[in-house]
Amino acid sequence: MQHEHDGTYAAWVRHFEAERERRAALGDPDRSRGARLSPALVRSIQTFQVGEGGDGAALISKADRAGDPVYAAAARLFVAEEQNHARLLALLLSAAGAGTLDGHWSDAAFVRVRRLLGLRVELMVLMVAEVVALRYYRALRDGSADPLTSEVAARILADEERHVPFHCRRLYEGLAGLPRPARRAATAGWRAMVAAAALLVAADHGAALREAGVSRRAFVSDVVGSSAPMAATMSDGPVPAVPAQAGVQAGVQAGARAAV
C-alpha cells in the first residue's frame, strides 16, 4: 500500500512542479492599468487574502508525521500555491490602491479548528474552505467588471479546482479504515460544516457577491450542492486522478501563442 501511495503522490509532486513552472513562464497579470474595486469588494478580497496567506506550518508538520515523505513533499507544494494566491490577491488590492489586513476573525477561527486534531481533521476543515473558495472565485471570475479581478480570480480558481482531488484522495485514504456508517457520518458532518461556512461567508460577503451577480441564497445553495460529490468521493471513492493540466493557465498560454 505504501509503495502504491508513493507512486500516486510522486505523480502529484510532478504535477505541482509542472504547474509551478507554468506559472513562472506565464508571469503575473498585467497591473499597469490598475483595478477598479468597490469598497465592498476591497473588504471581501482583503478577507480572502488573509485566508490564503497562512504559512501552512501545522499542515506540513502533520504531513511529515504521517510517515509518507512523498505526500509531505506534495503538501509543501500545495501550501506554496496557496501562498501564491495570497500574493496575487495582494497585487490586485495594490493595483486598486488598497492594502492588506493583518488578520481576520474568520481565518483565526478556521485555523483554531484545523489544529485541534490530526491530519485527517486538518484536511477536512481545509476542504471546507476550499469548497467555499471555489464558488467565491468563480463569482469573481464570471461576474466582475474589472479585467484584472477576473484574471486573478480565474488563475486562483484553476488552482483550487486541482486542489480538490488532491485532498479528496488523501481523505479517502484516511477514512478507508473506518466502517462505512462511520465514513458516512464523518462526511455528513463535513457537509454540515460546509453549509455553516457558506452561510457565514454569504452573510459577511453578501454585498461583494451581489456585485458579482450572485445572491446570498444562490451562493449557499451552490456551495452546499457542490459538496455532495466530494463527500461521496471521500467516503466511497472512486479515487480522483491527477489532473492532466491547469486549464486556465494552459488556455491563457495558448491564447497568447495564437495572438502572436
Explain what this protein looks like in three dimensions.
It comes from Streptomyces bambusae. This is Ferritin-like domain-containing protein. The structure is a single chain. The protein is mostly helical. The protein is built from eleven helices and no strands. The radius of gyration is 18 Å and the shape is globular. The N and C termini lie far apart (48 Å).
Please identify the structural class as seen in this structure.
mainly alpha
Q: How many helices does DSSP assign?
A: 11
The major β-sheet equals: none
- Percent helix, as a range, is over 70%
Q: What does the overall shape look like?
A: globular
The overall pLDDT average reads 87
What is Rg? 18 Å
Which H/E pattern describes the elements? Answer: HHHHHHHHHHH
Number of strands: 0
Give a topology summary.
Elements: H1 2-26, H2 39-52, H3 57-65, H4 69-95, H5 105-114, H6 119-143, H7 147-175, H8 180-204, H9 206-211, H10 216-236, H11 247-259
Helix pairs in contact: 1-4, 2-4, 3-4, 4-7, 6-7, 6-8, 6-10, 7-10, 8-10
Distinctive features:
260 residues; mainly alpha; 11 helices; disordered C terminus
What is the compact description of this entry?
With 260 residues, the chain is mainly alpha-helical. 78% of the residues lie in helices and 0% in strands.
